[in-house]
């Protein structure tokens, strides 16, 4: 059977992760010159560092127990694929890609800059904390935005 699925249409317009995706994409756009300096123009194709940072954000927000578990979930989790701008046909990446790129991201301090910028932008929207509602079925986990407590 042939089916066409538009991930953009599958994610509800009111899903809180839509706001997080906008914040993350904005933060990554600001860090673009840093990524350009980190990577050579030629060489083997690799997983873009922007995708690894966004994946790390998902791992944190959804309390995924490991990078390996995340890569397994990425095979069937449409929300994660949408957040990472991946097509349905694109294969999940190997978990060792995190290990291989972690040192480079830490050396250039880009991971901290990314997370700090996402938090800064969220605070500017009046939303400092994002938490996950607990469900019996973990695959139904959703993020809920909470107002900043002062």
Structure description:
This protein is mainly α. The protein has 8 helices and 2 strands, in the order H-H-H-H-H-H-H-H-E-E. Strands 1-2 form a two-stranded antiparallel sheet. The C terminus is likely disordered.
How many separate domains? 1
* Spatial order of the strands forming the largest sheet: 1-2
Major sheet size, sense and barrel closure: 2 strands, antiparallel
State the helicity in percent bands. Answer: 40-55%
Radius of gyration based on Cα positions: 16 Å
Count of extended strands: 2
**Which H/E pattern describes the elements?**
HHHHHHHHEE
* Helix count, DSSP H or I runs of 4 or more residues: 8
Question: Beta fraction of the residues?
Answer: 5-15%
Average pLDDT confidence is 81
Q: What would you call the shape?
A: globular
Low-confidence stretches: 128-150
Distance between the termini: 54 Å
Summing up helix and strand content along with how strands pair, one would put the structural category as: mainly alpha
Structure summarized in a few sentences:
The protein is mainly alpha-helical and 150 residues long. The chain has 8 helices and 2 strands. Helix content is 53%, strand content 5%.
List the helices and strands and how they pair.
Elements: H1 7-10, H2 17-30, H3 32-38, H4 49-61, H5 67-74, H6 78-83, H7 96-107, H8 110-124, E1 129-132, E2 143-146
Antiparallel strand pairs: 1-2
Main attributes of the structure:
150 residues, 2 strands, 5% strand
């Amino acid at each position: 059977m042939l089916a066409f699925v538009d991930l953009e249409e599958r994610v509800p317009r009111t899903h809180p992760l839509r706001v997080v995706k906008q914040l993350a994409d904005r933060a990554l756009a600001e860090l673009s010159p840093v990524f350009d300096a980190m990577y050579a123009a030629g060489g083997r194709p690799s997983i873009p560092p922007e995708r690894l940072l966004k994946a790390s954000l998902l791992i944190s927000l959804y309390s995924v127990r490991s990078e390996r578990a995340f890569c397994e979930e990425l095979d069937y989790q449409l929300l994660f694929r949408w957040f990472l701008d991946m097509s349905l046909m694109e294969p999940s990446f190997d978990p060792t890609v995190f290990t291989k790129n972690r040192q480079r991201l830490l050396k250039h301090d880009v991971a901290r800059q990314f997370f700090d910028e996402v938090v800064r932008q969220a605070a500017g929207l009046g939303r400092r904390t994002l938490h996950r509602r607990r469900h019996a079925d973990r695959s139904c986990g959703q993020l809920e935005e909470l107002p900043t407590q002062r």
